[in-house]
Amino acid sequence: MRGRRIVIMKKEEEARDNKTEKDEEIKEEKMQKKEKEEIKGKAKEEEKKQEEGFKEPDLPVLFVWFISMLSGKTWEYLGLIMNSETKEINKDLKKAKTAIDTIAFLYDQIKDDLNTEDFKRIENLLANLRMNYVEKLKES
């Protein structure tokens, strides 16, 4: 009888342990689910903040960006750097002059709205482009 009682007690103990383990697993699953929901919520909040924080760039910022793009093409037209697509050096001084004049025009339109760093950078860029244009013109 005593042996049977021990077996029953062991089974009851195992049942409690199993229930405890299942409870632990359920708690763990709930925690993981809650963490995932929190992460999703934070991601949505961050996305919303970014959408709210995005604003169209000001005209001077766009002009500075365009000037930097155009200056790269100008160096190519001067024959001083290789075309990244064709891997060739093509000199076209007429296009180079047009690009330099365009940069100068854009710069003249926005120079009053530029910060000192951009102001100096574009001033130096124009001076370098013009000097290199004159040198290439003399070589031709």
Task: Please outline what is shown here.
This protein has helices at 2-53, 59-77, 93-110, 116-139. The chain is mainly alpha-helical and 140 residues long. The mean pLDDT is 83.
The N- to C-terminal Cα distance equals 115 Å
SSE topology string: HHHH
In total, the number of strands is: 0
- Biggest sheet architecture: none
Rg, nearest Å: 35 Å
Q: Which class do the helix and strand fractions yield?
A: mainly alpha
How many separate structural domains? Answer: 2
Helical residue percent? over 70%
Q: Mean pLDDT, nearest integer? A: 83
Determine the strand fraction and express it as a percent band.
Answer: under 5%
| Low-pLDDT regions | none
What overall form do the CA principal axes indicate?
rod-shaped
Number of helices: 4
Please characterize this protein's 3D structure.
- This protein has two domains: 1-55; 59-139, no CATH class.
- The chain has four helices and no strands.
- The protein has helices spanning 2-53, 59-77, 93-110, 116-139.
- Helix 2 (59-77) runs antiparallel to helix 3.
- The longest helix has 52 residues, at 2-53.
- The chain is rod-shaped and about 115 Å long.
Write a concise keyword list for the protein shown above:
single chain; 140 residues; mainly alpha; 2 domains; 4 helices; rod-shaped
Write the layout of secondary structure elements.
Elements: H1 2-53, H2 59-77, H3 93-110, H4 116-139
Helix pairs in contact: 2-3, 2-4, 3-4
